[in-house]
Write a structure and sequence with these properties.
heterodimer; A: alpha/beta; Rossmann fold; Dimethylsulfoxide Reductase, domain 2; 2 domains; 9-stranded mixed sheet; 5-stranded parallel sheet; 11 helices; B: alpha/beta; TIM Barrel; 26 strands; binds zinc ion; Formylmethanofuran dehydrogenase (chain A); Metal_Hydrolase (chain B); Formylmethanofurane dehydrogenase, subunit, putative (chain B); Metal-dep_hydrolase_composite (chain B)
Chain lengths: 372, 546
Amino acid sequence: MTTAWIDGQPVSSGEAIREAAKLLSMSRLPLVTGRFDDISALREAARVAGFSGGVLDHSDLGRVAPLIEALRDNGIIRISPGEVRRRADRVLVVGADPFAGSEAVFEQIFAVDPDLGAKAKGGQREIVLLGPDEPGRFSEVKGHVRTVGCPADQLGDAIGVLRAGLGGKPFGDGPFEEGAARALAGWLKDAAFAAIVFDATELDAISIESVAGLVSDLNAETRASALPLTAGSVYGAAEGAIWVTGFPLRTAFGRGDPEHDMMLNDGAWLISSGESDARIMLSYDETALDVADVPTILLSTAEEPAGEGARVIFKIGRPGVDHPMVHHEPRFGSFVSTPAEHHGMATNAADILSAIADQLGKAHHSNDEARA
Amino acid sequence: MLTCLKGGHVVDPANGIDEVRDIFIKDGKIVDAPAEAGSANETVDCSGMVVMAGAIDIHSHIAGGHVNTARLLLPEWHRAFSARPGETALSKVGWTTKETGLRYAEMGFTTVVEPAMGPQAALHAHLELADIPIIDKATLVVLGNDDMLMSMIRDGESDEAIADYVLWTVDASKALGVKCINAGGSAAFKENVRSYAFDTEVPDYGVSSRQILKTLQKAVTDAGIPHPLHVHCNNLGVPGASADAAEATIRASEGMPLHLAHIQFYGYGIEGRRGFSSKGEELARLINENPDVTVDIGQVMFGQTVTISSDEMRQFAGRAQASPGKSIIMDQEANGGGVVPMNYKEKSFFNALQWAIGLELFLLIEDPSRVFFTTDHPNGAPFTTYPDIFALLMDRNVREKWIEALPKSVKKWTSLPEIEREYTLAEIATMTRAAPAKLLGTRDRGHLGSGATADISVYRPNDDKAKMFGAAAYLFKDGVKVVENGAVVAKPYGRALTLKTHSDAKMGSRLDRYFDEAYGLQSRWFKVEGSALRRETPFREVPCLS
Ligand SMILES: [Zn+2]
């Protein structure tokens, strides 16, 4: 079975690896990107970027960039979903449907009543949905649910108003009905343990900082904590990149020490501006990709990945299905490993990336990463 | 291949050796001198140099979720590393797993313990450790704020059941030992308790910090885990209450071994108009009188750093002093924790006295095998300050110079200027090699006897001890030369040292149900699989005490 192609022609994987390394080493600024669902692939991709003097990015990083910015500029008091499940007697859910794509976390939190904490246990959870006026997936959860209407584009303002209401400062009602903001702030303050849940990919950095500020103010006298949700693999990939490179992706290795810049090292911009003249990309997309813009090395799970205009193609297995994977599990708030669903011959993208990095490393005469 | 390190001054207190002699290495181990002189394939001239076992750091926050959160919160210091090397001690650390391995190796360290791995962060911690080159690593898993343990104590479950739970956790997380951080304090903080001490009960559980600590101490001892329970006491950093907490905990050791971490942060009294004074002498006396107890210091050094701790209550309180003014606090299933930036200033009375208290403890605790060399990296200071601390311990003149630079008011409040003791090379080797290996139960290291792992550091003597210990002349890791003249020349990967144990199947199925029903989590997520780490030999097992 063919698993590697150069210019559409079947080749051995060894040939493809050498060709990929050659392409990357000749590039002025190669882009290493894609969707790194498997943290093993991310770790190896960082080596590829390092040895080739490229830029490491994730195709979805833009979705979590506001969260990353808010966390590092401002900080936060945050909570894991398991602890919300057991301890939060009052949950403020911010946004139209922050659990879209985070259904497992929704189930984890709301399937049971809180059972820890002298004041919280034995009672039912109270849930306030701050957003468009419809309960959606909350129509059947345990606990008391009510909605406080707020247009999606005014959520950040609404949080700011709640914060002012908490402080007893004079404030306008913003998107709230008269008196509703003060009541809601009081409701949060009287909780045994309040949790504020939001989709961090839907709010801008200022709004996220506003949530963090509200939580911080609440903790002056009571306990409250924030739960930012980020569906998909990108937050985990950013975490992995932080320990390997020091930064949450969008990091350039062209000048020796890693340099991080959310704008200058945005992969999409690097390609569209012509800054990057080659790309290696990891794709779990079954549909054909248009990658004719720059010479591309494509690692693809597609059934028949050949013929998509890429210079070099590797067919790879699906992580957690065809081979084991290591990924960030939002319910756990940390990394877990998942075995393969079946034993097969499918190639692990991490192994391909590792081989390309080794090939590039050889050219550097590097003694790095000897596998002892 | 037989390698001979020829003619060095070998300082190996574990074997009672302090003399010029040759050391032989074969297949990664230290071996006896061959019968035929001159049969070595390779000779490294060590004449005039000091030869010791590789150094061991028993408490340094180098990996895991909280450390990574600190990297996220403080990217500016990483940038500082690239653009302005040497500006701050923290910037010299760099901010990556790779830098961690290289900087430790350059100083002659070969084993480092990450002391605060949450059970849920175990795979994360091990993934990071797997990416740290050269050195061997180990972890302590944190218990003592977890619902399971506190419930078991409340419900009067048997010692055996509790030991099974502890061993399951150690086994799943691939830890070497167990740490307890402000026992019950994080759980109490979730109940909005803001003031908490050794005999305070955790609301809703009705168990006290003392009960949790004593239960864990017994479980660890009964299970034959070589490293005694590693304790972060209550009320860290609080003048008066911190010293009370340390004293109460030391007295509670009651004939069983106990290790107290970063004891400097507990040496604070309330005298003087600033309400801040040294309890260093009293604390040192208490430790000298209690042979069951070992301590590490957590020395403060001046400059920008960041505090990383699973003591959520303490970190929450500390966020008011965050510098720069931002922090991340985490409520999690057990301990949670927090990351709070900190800038220790030489001109601050408080910070200067903290510095002095750490040195008082180092110098007044008499037995170098019961006091360990740490800054609680990065909490007191980054580990890159170690060379300066060696100089402070070994050279009274260096101390005098440092004291001169402090605010004059500090001198009145510390006995440090009167302390004449200077650590000898043999005492340094005891504190950083022989004793840590014994404390961790890793008998294959910390000494240069036949059969030991060939982790060997070689230093060029220098009157400037910071220069001497800042750059190893050579470092051998598993017999391979990895550092020469202070620069890394090879980057093999070490392993994580894990406890050789097994977990009880009944406890396993109980926890399968518990994590699912209580938290909606799968118990298998807590288990670290070596294959997930992508290293040929991710682990080396350390046996339990029989
Ligand atoms: Zn510590």
